[in-house]
Write a structure and sequence with these properties.
The structure holds two protein chains of two kinds.
Chain A lengths: L9 H14 L6 E7 H9 L10 E8 L7 H11 L4 E5 L13 H6 L3 E4 L3 H10 L4 E8 L4 H13 L5 E7 L2 H9 L8 E4 L1 H7 L5 H7 L3 E3 L4 H16 L5 E3 L11 H10 E3 L2 E4 L3 E4 L3 E3 L8 H4 L6 E3 L6 H5 L31 H8 L4 H7 L3
Parallel strand pairs in A: 1-2, 1-7, 3-4, 3-5, 5-6, 7-8, 8-9
Antiparallel strand pairs in A: 10-13, 11-12
Helix pairs in contact in A: 1-10, 2-14, 6-11
Chain B lengths: L8 E3 L1 H14 L12 H14 L18 H15 L2 H4 L5 E5 L2 E10 L5 E2 L2 E2 H15 L3 E12 L4 H18 L2 E10 L7 E11 L15 E4 L5 H9 L17 H10 L3 E6 L4 H12 L3 E5 L7 H10 L12 E5 L4 H9 L8 E7 L6 E4 L5 E3 L13
Parallel strand pairs in B: 6-7, 11-14
Antiparallel strand pairs in B: 2-3, 3-8, 4-5, 6-8, 9-12, 9-13, 10-12, 11-13, 14-15
Helix pairs in contact in B: 5-6, 8-11
Classes of the chains: A alpha/beta, B alpha+beta.
Amino acid sequence: MRFVDEYRDADKAGALAAKIASMCEPGRHYKFMEVCGGHTHTIYKHGLEDYLPESIQLVHGPGCPVCVIPMGRVDDAIHIAEQPDVIMTSFGDMMRVPGGRGSFFDSKAAGADIRMVYSPLDALKIAKGNPDKHVVFMAIGFETTAPSTAVTVLRAVAEKVENFSIFCNHVTIIPAIKAILESPDLRLDGFLGPGHVSTVIGCRPYEFIARDYGRPLVTAGFEPLDILQSIYMVLKQLAEGRCEVENQYTRVVPWNGNLKALQVIGQVMELRPYFEWRGLGFISHSALKVRQEYASFDTERIFDLPGVRVADPKACQCGEVLKGVLKPWECKVFGTACTPETPIGTCMVSSEGACAAYYNYGRFSRERVKEATRA
Amino acid sequence: MSPPGMSEQRSAAWAEAAVAEHEDHELAQYPSGREHPSREQQVLERIERARRRKPKIKEERITLAHGAGGKATHTLIEAVFLEAFRNPLLEQLDDGAVFTADGARLAFTTDSFVVSPLFFPGGDIGELAVNGTVNDLAMSGARPTYLSAGFILKEGFPVADLQRIASSMARAAEAAGVQVVTGDTKVVQRGKADGCYINTTGVGLIEHGLTLGPSQVRPGDAVLVSGPIGDHGITIMLARGELDIETDLTSDTAPLHGPVEGLLAATTGVRCLRDATRGGVATILNEVARASDVAVVVDERAIPVRDEVRGASEILGIDPLYVASEGRFVAIVDGAKAETALDALRSHPLGEGAAIIGHVKDDPPTLVLLKTEFGGTRIVDVLIGDPLPRIC
């Protein structure tokens, strides 16, 4: 199939893997973080680690929009969904995410009207079709999805839809990367930058990572060959003593981003002073809220929210996994108390989380599997 | 840590309970460092022990995941129904029960149909209701004979639609060589049901001496599918009209007793047959790996998937291995008979697209492994809930 097969070519992967292996300094160990959960998913789904030498370890970063929503926010969303005459709408992968007292799925089973949508515009359509109800869109995601939420608010204004609001949980990637860079136990040698976020914000916002923190970053695409090539590009920088921001995903990511999309976000939303990230805690200026001018479309201004913070259990070690200090399976509760069905920590929540990806796709002994897959 | 105004804090009771539940015996500390290379293996074994525990239902209410055919469905069946009805026939948890009555070997099965929309490209709920039960019988190795049909209708449901469904059932029954010999009708108030639900129950005759089932599989066996997978599931998802994707794809719903008959006539090396409905091929292979304590190794490049199904799956972020078909089945046969079985399947119009997709190995037991088209390896796990589209 076009636009898919050419990025999954096993022969090309083999050739790239050989170049990667030859680029590694003997005796040196490398830790690279792929920031985006989409990358984590690709890495495990295609078994990409089979192509990497043992000296390269991939650390799975915080770029999973579903995973980072704190449990208290999920409780708030469920509280809204349970108000009379409210229809809550949400992307599919948010449905299973548990808060302090269950998930959207549980609340739906108990009678709340919660519907899965594929786009915020679908939520607006539901609002127009149900004028006697108030329709809330559970807005989540990084800069990737924020523009479509903002456009939907503008559309609601233009079409004078008055029974629609967004519960804004949009987060911004740069403060999260900064929080990881400033952690004292950081052990990363370089980054694979988030491809889809970069289609909106471009590559320039990452320049401080190379300049101030001395770590190279390559913005990477989402097919397995994209990721292998990006790893090669980071290694090459290290081998040549360079430390820069490079763009592997040029077929989609413009260096300066998408100005129109950024303008729309800025028109409708502004930075919050702080926001809680599951697994990382409170981070300053790391999320967006609806501007005062659009207050009538802001769920937080329309409803009273409980706003109670729910702490992850102490046994949860997601913070360490996100910073690359621990591998997923090294966490005390991995795979026993914490599974994709009952995810205790952020990394197990969605298939893009590091722990869930490892549990779903990589939970096997490499030695024994090598034997089993021999033709 | 909390900023002012958010000092209130509590813990999630369910999460603390899950930690406590595993604390006594599972939260062992493993020594860390490079001198303990077997630590990952220890963790894998610990997980395997946790997975083998008796399933417990944690939810207080039924959720959609309980009906999706994955892990939650399995837990529900074991914790509620098997617990209540336990008997040797039910314990096998096969597509149908096989027993002897008066010297005749019979297969007996039931299935309910709640598909939405009722009419979709390539079929409708009526055809599905006949084929679904016919196929469950065929997978037990039986020749389907008689069906029952029960209808639950919503007040206000158009009679013309019901006539359309009934005549489509009649056509499907004729094609499958079965008769609908008994039935039931209930009407519920508007708002209590969504249009039309159908339950069909069927009996069939087993006319050969083979014992089929997921626990009959052995290392060295070959894994076949009878044609391209996932057509039905993707057709239904697109027919709901929520995605604005248009294709020429139609449901693959079809009666499978024909190709099964051909296969069983061609070789006695057949171990297990399963139609790849809810939960898809992945779910079947996991059942087999667990029931026979074997590894199933599948080659992604060998799995027949239509471009339309692949494309829609890519867009939605779902895996065709979990997507339902209604006219495809998985056959696991003696490895030495793999080619014979393949030829037999391909000689039937409903098996034209058949392929050998993998093999059974002894180690590592209970795992389904996929050699990806990209050249890597991963496991294919049991589905957790419905395959939900990822957002980005």
